[in-house]
Every structure is written in structure tokens, then in C-alpha cells.
Amino acid sequence: MYKTPVYFDQVSSREDFIATFKVYDDDTFTLIGLDGTVVAGSVNFTSSAWLVNVGSIATTSSTTITIPVYPKGGELSALSLVVAPGLAITAGQAITIADAATASNTAVGYVTSYNKQNGALVCQIGFTYQFEIRKMPPNWQPGLGYISWYDFGVAEQAPILQASLSNGEIKVTSPGTLQIYIPERTFRTLRSGTYGACMTMTDSIHTTQLFIGRLPVLWGGVSL
Amino acid sequence: MDFALRVKNVTPLPTPVIGAQLIVSPLTSAVMGGQTGGPFTPSSFVYSLSTQFGSISYSVGCPVWLTPSSSGGSVTTTPTAITFTPNTSTNALVAGVYTDSISFTNNSFSQTPIVIPITLTVIQLPAGALGIWYADQAITTGGNPVIPNLLSAVAVPKNLMRAPRRVFSVAVGGFWRSISVVVVDNNVVGPDGLTQASTATCTGPFALQYEDPILGGAGITWPAGTYTLGVNVKRATGSDQTFKIKAPDGTSSAAKTATSAWQRFTYTWTAGAPVTGSIAIVDNAGANAVLAVCDFEMFQGSSDLGPELLAGHMYLGGSAVSNLPTTSGGYVDFTANSGSTLAFLQFLTPQTLTSFTISALVNRTATGASLRSILEELNHFLDFVFYTSTVAAGEKFIFNFAATDPLIDAQAGLWNHAVGIGAHAITVRYDATTVDLFFDDVRCRTSSANPALSQAIANLFVGFLDGGTGANSGDKLAALAIWPSALSNAQLYNVLDIWKVHFSSLFTYTMHPYYYFADGDSITSGISNGYPAKYGPTASQSVFGQNIAIGGVGIATIAATNLPIWTASIPPASRRTNRHFVLSVLIGTNDLSTVTGPTEAAAVASSFVDPLQAAGFSVIIGTVIDRNAGIVNPAWTNNALSFNNIVRTSWGHGTAIIDFAANVHFGPPGSGAAADGTYYSDGTHLTVTGENLMVTILKPVADAAGP
User: Fold this and answer.
1) Which end of chain B is more exposed for a tag (fewer CB within 10 A), N or C?
2) Quick one: CATH architecture of A6-31+128-218?
């Protein structure tokens, strides 16, 4: 809801940064499915017999795939499997993978690549996320004079910290719930000040800004 | 929870779509074949449809000559069998090979239709056959197996008594004993118009009694059950006659009255436990009788299924409790019971043929030097009355039939015994002039006509595969067919093709890919020794063949004698795809004393090698060797050197050169090679050591010319 910036509580630069939040659809007020998976049991589900539907194409795969239970990271963000070759599958098509035995363990996402010669298919199950912390532009006030950030042609400041499924600092902890966890050893990089803290998510086709936030960081006052 | 977000315009992840595939099993192609008009083998084939999850709809496509049990519907995870059966359109197909496909389409989800190739081979059997019997179609229920004659429209009633049912005076098959009865066979016209009924003149208490010689004469033990006896009887004198029918349990029918017209009389009896005894037509309270009798039969159950028509069905053994021979896996198995017999009711009546073709598909299940050769089985087609394994003067053959009878593998010219393993067709063809023997599609023997060759068909069959003498053959009979005429080669090949298709689901019958033969003079001759015989077992590929070199003659005689044998033996080009017929030739030694090298080379090419190449052989030609001739006859030396040089360098005939003379122990001619005598026994002919060395020179050339 970036039209109303998220103001994080102030946090010390000498502690873990933990932010846990739920994501609702603004129209339906229901939790948004973030990971794209369903596991029928309470433990990770592994199988080598899968039904694979891409669009209206039904095929199978004997690739060994594990669908994890919560918390879920980036295990399936770039899932590789082998299906029948020669199918009319193109990148960007929706894909459903269901276990052949019960079809009750499922994963949905989008195809990112398919090799028609050998049937090698790569897809992204669920969303991936990008959380970044950057310096804010200088507060300009009348009388401050020239501030270089606003000069034409100056590049945007690079992110100081990044969190994602791939580096393990973002996880889907329950349906519709995300947790950002940046350990102190990384978070201490920040100095005292208010930072921009922004986050997006993408299913490889559609990308959504989750929030544009302000993160006040205090001096921690200890040497660790 | 730190906070909650309400996100606008988010695109939810795709809704799961769980669609299942149509699964077809097996995915192997279907092969079906048969004669024009059917039947086709297999009579149907089945594919199983299922899906991994839920239910999907499907549709089936197939050629018009097949009818699917379902053309569409829905299928779940439980397999649904779809049976494809030939229909009237199939029966109408003319001879040919029809390639098509059947398809299975998933109508619920997009899936590439599953297409299964299908091949239907329709072959027209040569017309006029007396019978064709396929062991895989044996009727094995309800008594001894019967293999129906496919060419007979008559059903196969299973007479439980050993054949014959129309011969009572002699022991043929079953055994009829007459007591106070004078029997004359084949002197009364039977109810079917054939003069095959017998007259039984009874001057006292009598019985026409059925026994079984194999099972112990009258001591046949019939299993518990209900049986029905039936017999055609009429009086053979001026007044009505009476008699009874006796069952093995000692009971007999009420008195029967034979009148001037043929009547069918029956008697049904039941044994609560196995019963031992004979079956007979007996007198009525001691009354004499003069009867005409035929078609005496017994069937299981309470119905008389006779009289059994003359359909030429193949009866294995004869009685209901006989265990000889057996049928299994599509064969009549002679391997366990060497005394097995086949009975052909139709042909027990003597029929004289002035020409015929008999072909059998035999599966050789064992091999070894001590086993009867499969070629001996071929010989045994004729091994009675008029013919023995002795080779007559002037006979032409390419396998060794000259050995003692029985002919065992080690003598048969099958240089690699294992070649005999598997299915082979063996055929005898007689056209009133010659007898040809075929091993598969290779003609392997031709004999001059024997004036007494006209044969009773019954004898032909009795003589075949009986295993009664000599070593065990290890053979199983899959198919047998007989024509009362000499089939052409093309017709015979057609028969082999029919069998190949018919038995394709049971076993593979293919023509052997590699044959190696040899020809030449005395340096080459020798069936079980000599360098060709030594090459056979060591060839890189399984090989069979023969050596028909003639000692002491030159190219003119060899060409005149052997060229016709070779050219008549090799099958046509259309049947040689992926098959190799290699012929090694070492000739010239006996000509080169007087004939120049160029002249001899030209003669070898034009009179022998070129015609052989044209016939389909890969001819490999050897350079001449002869230490003695080279020493004692300088002219021979010069001519031989010239001949060898021409063959090596500029000849251009044949497939390859076997340069025996390039070896220091054999050449060059005139060099006095191997003067130590190690390689020549007499200066001309080879010692065993020499033959072994020759093989090392021959083998790479012959192997390269083979598969």
C-alpha cells in the first residue's frame, strides 16, 4: 500500500531486523497466496511421479520434487523438472504440478523456460520477493542551497541491504504471511538515520509493489 | 505480527489445473496377419486405457478393417481394455502388407494423440492345399489335443478312440481285433458315398473290439464320466441283422437291428470311477451277423458328435487318455516322447500322389554333436519305403546327407551347430522328376526322381518327426502343410512368410543372415575337415553352409557341375535383404599346367565367378597354391604366378581376394614354399596344420564379406 508509506518502528543497528506481516488483497480482504503450494500433510512432500499441466497440456514428470511445508523459502523459485519433449509449451504459461498419486500436493506458477528437444522445463512456483534498504534523499529545506542528489544525471543510490528468498532472509511463514529477517551481523552495516525500506514481489510475469517504507535506525551504542 | 498490508491490483497466482493424461498400454505396435479371408493371428489385440487421476474422455481411431470394442467414452484410473478385432473388411483384403495406425485421443486435455502403428500382412496360401495345421490352434480341452485342419470347414469332433475309425482288419493307430469275424476293409460304400466301410462276417460269438496298443491293449483306463458310442451299421446280407454296442464297464446297449440302409446307432454309458476295459460291437445273445460297419467313434458327454467327417484334422496320439505327444507354447512337442505319433484321419485312407509339397515349421530347442540334425528331420520326410539317407549317384546337394542314419549335427554340414536352434522350415517338394529339399528358403538338396516315388500320404506323415529311431531331435512342430502338387519357389516362400506372420506373437521366425559355402578342387574338398569346415565354427557370425568342392577337376567341370547347384540354391534378391551368401573359391590348380594365367583367369571369371555374383553370392577368390606343382612343372609355376597376379591386381571380378599364396608357407608358386613339409602332406594337399593356417587367411576375408 505504497500510497500510504509504511513507517517501521525504530530499530537499533545492533539487533536483528525482524518484520513479519500479512498480505491481504485490498479488494477481497483475503490473504494472498504467496508460495503457490499445497502440502496435504504436515511434513515436506517428496515424489517422483507428477502430473504436470501447462495451460491445457497434460503431461507427466518423474523428476524428484519436494514441496516444503512452512516456513518456505526459495526452494521452488527456479524449479527444474523434465516432462515429455516436443510439447507446445512456452515461457510465461501457467503451470500446475500435482502428485500423480493423490493430486493433493500441488504447486502452481509460471513456466520460465522449456526445451522442446529434451523436455527440460524450468518454472517459478509462487512469488519471489525483493526487500531493499537504501539511504533516503537528503531532506531539503529552503535555505539549504545546493544538494547534489537532486542534480540532473546523478544515479540513484545503491541499496545498502537486500533480502530475498534466495538469500534466505525472506520466508513465507504461513499462508499470506511474510517474514523479513536480517541478522544483526548484516544489519549493523546501517548507521543512524532513517532509511528507505521498500519491497516488491513477482510471479515472473506480474510484479507488485508491496510497500514503500521508512525505517528509522538508531545508534546501537555497543560494540559486538 | 508487525503489521498487515492491503495490496491493490495484485494478480493472484494461477488457479491449480489438475488434468490427467490418457495412458495407453502397451505402446508397442501391433502386428497381425493371416490368409486372405482370414483367420488372422492374433484374432484380436487389446490396448488398455487409463488416466492418472480423476476421469477424462477419450476417442479411438482405427482403420476400417478393425472394429474397436469402444470408439470413445470416459476412462478413470482403472484400466479400460479396448479390443480391436478384424471385421468383414479385413476378410475382403487382397494379399499385401497394410500399414496403418490406431490412435487414442484425450478429449479432456490437450495431449498429443497416442498413435500405435499397426501392420497387417495378408497372404494368399497357394491354392489346393490338402491341409494346413497350426499347433498353436490345438484344441486341448476335453481329451487328447486335436489340431484342426485350417482348410476344413468341418468342425473338430473329438473322437476319443485312436484312429482309424474305418479300418478294422489291421492295426493302424487303434487296434481292432476280430474274434470269429472276417473283416474286409474298404469294400462297401459308406453313408458318405466313399468306399471306405468294412464288411464284418461273423460266424459265431464276435466282437469288433477297440484296444489301444500304446496304452496296453484292452487295458485302457477311461476316466470317470459320461461317454457316448456311435457307429454306422447296415446289414451286409439279405436279411436284417442284430448286434449290441459294449462299453468298457461291461454294460451293453439293447439289441440293435441293422437293416439295408445305413443307420447311426449310439450307446451312452457313465462311469462313476475310472474304468478299464475295451469297446466293442458284440453279438446279440450269440447270434451270428454279417454287418457293414464304419465310423465307430466315442465322444465325451451324452451326445453322439459323429459321424466324424473326413476333415483331415490332426489328432495327437489317439485315445482320450493318451499322453503322446504334448502341445504347449504353440508347438507339438516331440522332445519328451520320442514315440509320439500324429494321426490324420482323412489321410489314413491311402491316397497316391504323383507330386506333392510338404512343409513344416520346426523349432529346434536343443543342439549338439550327438543330436539328430534338423536336416535329418528333413531327410525323414522321405525316410521310408523308397528313400534312405544314402546318397545316390548323381545326386546334387549342398548339405551333407551322406552320413549314416540318423544324421547327427556333427555330420550335417551345419558348421555352427547353434545355427540349428530356433525356428526353421523344412520342405520336401516332389514334381515327379526330382525331389527338392529346402532348409528355410535355401534349396539344399535335389535328387533324381525315383520311379517308385508315388506315396501314400499316410506314410508321409507317419515318417515325419516320429522320433522313433535314432537320436533325439530336440524338435517341436509348429506348423505343417501339404499340397498335392509341387509348389513353385515363390509359392513356397509365400508359405514361409505366412508362418512368419502367423507365429510372430509366439516366436521369431527369420531367415538366417549368414551362409558360407566353399567350392574348388581337392585342396578345398572335405565336408567335416578342410579349411572351410574349420572356418565355419570360428566365423565372426553364426553361420551355416557347406563345401562341395570336387577333387581332381578343373574349372570347366566344377562350373558345369556345381554352378547349377549354387544358382538354384540361393533365394532371390527380394529375400536376401540383410542376408549374406558368401562363397569362397579356390580353383585353377588342375588347369594351370596347360592353361595360361590370363586364359584361366578369364575362364574362372566368365564361367563361374560372374554368374555366382549375378546370382547373389559374394564370391571371394583364393590365389592358387601348390608346392609340388611349382617344383616339378615350371610351366605351371609361370601360369600360376600370372594367374595370381591377375587376380590380385587387375581382375575386377568377385568381391574380395583371399591371398593364400602371399603366405610364405604356401607361396609364391614355384618358390618351394614350406619345403619342411609341415603345411603340405604330399606337396599339393594340406596337412591339418596347413588347413589351420589357411583358415587364418580365409577368416578375415570371409568375415568381412559376411554380416
Assistant:
1) N
2) Sandwich (2.60)
